[in-house]
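Late entry, evening session. Most of the bench is empty. Finally got around to the prediction I had been postponing all week. Sequence below, unchanged from the version circulated by S.P.
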Amino acid sequence: MFGFWIYMLLMDLLIPALMIGIGTLFQKRPPKRINGISGYRTKRSMRTQETWDFAHRYFGNLWVKIGLVLLPLSVLPLIFVFGKDIDLVGTVGGIVTGVQIVPMVAAIFPTERALKENFDEYGKPNL
């Protein structure tokens, strides 16, 4: 029972840890060139090298902040089910993961808004 609880804790910390790690990477060393394989890839972010770099810095910063908030919040629900039935621990762990996915994906919306506010439809900076 304790082993499964540890497993669920590690799995629930995986998304926030990856968000912090990838967010830091995007901030400091985004993919150098626009590509269709890796990085923050949206139509707006891939217009110019400048929009590409801006999107990675902005999105990376958001992911680091969100990841740092999610990290402790992900532990709390599991503390309440420590030593409880495996089914309950699994259910709570699954719910935590599902909740984590919402802000992880939602970070796209403010990033796209920031791109729209800072660049025109051709990817040129707004003055």
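Two things to note before I forget:
Residues 32 and 53 are 8 Å apart (CA to CA).
The radius of gyration is 18 Å.
Will write this up properly tomorrow.
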